[in-house]
Structure formats: C-alpha cells, structure tokens
Design a protein that fits this description.
Length: 319
C-alpha cells in the first residue's frame, strides 16, 4: 500500500501530466499550477480522477486545500503569484472559468472564484482511461472557440465609459467601475464643465485610460497603480487638478490619503481639488466621519449636489 507521500507525489505528477497534455506553457508546468488544478476539481491524494468535482473556489481556499491535502504551505502573499502565473493562464486556455456565477464581479473582488470548464471537466474525468485521448482531441479542436466564447462573455459585462464625444473606453465590470462611469459622465459635466480626462484607474489593468500629453504638460507621471486616485481630471480654464476617489468598498479621501495625494502631486503647478465620490447616501454615511476637511464629496444618486467639508457649498480648491 502506498503511503501518503507517495500518493501526494503521484497525484501532483498526474496533474502536471494533464496540464502538459492540455498544452499549457512550460511556465505553468509546475507544482503550483498542479495544486490549482487539483483544488479546482477537488482531487485529494487518494481520490481517483473519475471522481473529480466542479466546486466554485477562490485562490485563498486553493492554498488552504493545498496545505491541508498536499502538505505544502504557501505564504499569504503568494496569492498574487497564484492568480497571475497559474489561474490566469488556466482561464486563458479554456480549462477554467472565472466567476462563472457572476461574470460582472470585479477583477480584484475578494469574492472572485474559479471553476473547471464543462469541456475540460469531461476530459479530466477520463484521465487514465482509453477514452482520454479522444476527449482531449475533441477539447483541443474546440479550445480556441471555447476561449473566445468565455472572453466574449466577460467582454459583454465590461463597463463602457464615454470620455469624449465620439470616444468610449471599456473598463472592468463591477460597482467600482460603474461609479467611475458616473463620475465622468454625471459629476464632471455638472461641476467641472470643460474639464479634460487625464487618468482612469481600472481594477483589471494598470490603468484604464491615461493622457500622457496632459500629464506631461502638468509635469507629473502616473506612478504605482495602487497609489493613484481612481480618476484625475484637469480644468484648464481654472488650472484645477481634480483628484477623485470612487468609494464603494475602500475609503474616501481621509486625512492620511489627503497627505499621500499632496505628496504624490506636490510638484504639479495647479490648484488641487480632492473629491470623494459615493454611489448612494448610505455609503456616504458609512464613511462620512473619515472624510478630510477642505475636500469635497459627491453622491451619485443625488448628482446635482456637491458637499464641501467645512459646511459651505463647493467653491473650488482650498487655498
């Protein structure tokens, strides 16, 4: 009878063999990606491939599964490595689905989940049998079609943001992006007429939009994505640089964030306006006590009003 270590070694080797047969790149033919596959189909060391399952599972649960069943522990900060260098490629290959229960879920959502695709599941459950080669051949014939189909389904849920009269961009789906859309299409025309869009952050990419010419004229560059505000606008007539945070789950421009942004844009020769944007009153109330003085707040479901945090109406940048 095989001991636990032998069972673990054998199952990981089989998972890598499956990934190899699926045609995964060499960079994904490793234990980490094998653990992802094993977790996604809930295959423990003693379990046969024909008994694979189709759970919805996030990356942290994959790492927990690996520790519990395969005696391999990864540091919590390995989560991004799993996502960028294992699950991302499995999704691209049509082997795994991303958020099949809710394709509109944002890329960086803590609720993000993965599931084996129906076509790949049919192949995997035949591993070790005579039917495997034929199932794999059928999968490969349709693999491009499957990948295009899944990509199209994701694309259908992207948020379209109108940035100029004849020009729109697509950013990742989710409440955060919906609010960014409202900031640009509803808030800006009301309170910042004639403004120019400089930057939109996007949860799915390093940035969703970046006008390097305007930024260059103002003598600043887009820095590390996590440090940037969600939206940057420029009102040339008044020389205002408007820095906006889209507040859905993360906080508004509080005192700490105010100082960070002051330092980040300290070299810009323009008056700075800081705005915290909220989707509704209930979200505003939840964060109201954190908002920094001498900043502005805008609530999307009451779009005609801007709140200046010293009790006065919006008058522009504080000097």
């Amino acid at each position: 009878m095989k001991n636990v270590k032998q069972l673990i070694s054998e199952k990981v080797s089989q998972a890598i063999d499956i990934l190899t047969k699926f045609g995964m790149p060499n960079a994904q033919l490793n234990d980490r990606t094998a653990y992802c596959l094993l977790a996604i189909v809930n295959i423990t060391p003693e379990k046969e491939w024909k008994n694979a399952e189709k759970p919805l599972i996030g990356i942290t649960p994959m790492m927990d599964f690996t520790k519990l069943n395969y005696q391999k522990e990864y540091a919590p900060n390995s989560r991004e490595t799993f996502r960028r260098f294992s699950t991302h490629q499995l999704v691209q290959a049509g082997i795994v689905l991303y958020n099949p229960d809710d394709p509109s879920r944002p890329v960086n959502s803590p609720k993000a989940v993965y599931q084996i695709s129906p076509a790949a599941f049919d192949v995997i459950t035949k591993y070790g049998t005579k039917a495997f080669d034929k199932a794999l051949e059928d999968f490969k014939k349709n693999q491009k079609t499957l990948s295009e189909k899944y990509a199209h389904e994701r694309e259908m849920n992207m948020v379209s943001v109108k940035i100029k009269d004849q020009h729109s961009i697509q950013i990742s789906p989710g409440k955060h992006s919906e609010l960014i859309k409202q900031i640009i299409e509803e808030m800006a025309p009301r309170f910042l007429p004639g403004c120019e869009l400089v930057y939109i952050g996007d949860t799915g990419e390093k940035w969703g939009y970046y006008d390097q010419e305007i930024a260059g004229n103002l003598l600043f560059n887009v820095q590390e994505h996590g440090k940037m505000p969600d939206v940057i606008l420029y009102v040339k007539e008044k020389n205002w640089l408007v820095l906006v945070e889209s507040v859905t789950s993360h906080g508004p421009v509080d005192s700490k964030r105010y100082i960070e942004l002051e330092e980040l844009f300290g070299s810009v020769n323009a008056d700075k306006v800081y705005i915290s944007a909220f989707p509704d009153k209930s979200t505003f109330v939840r964060f109201a006590h954190d908002i920094a003085w001498e900043t502005e707040s805008w609530i999307a479901d009451n779009p005609d009003h801007m709140i200046h945090f010293n009790g006065d109406k919006f008058l522009g940048p504080h000097k």
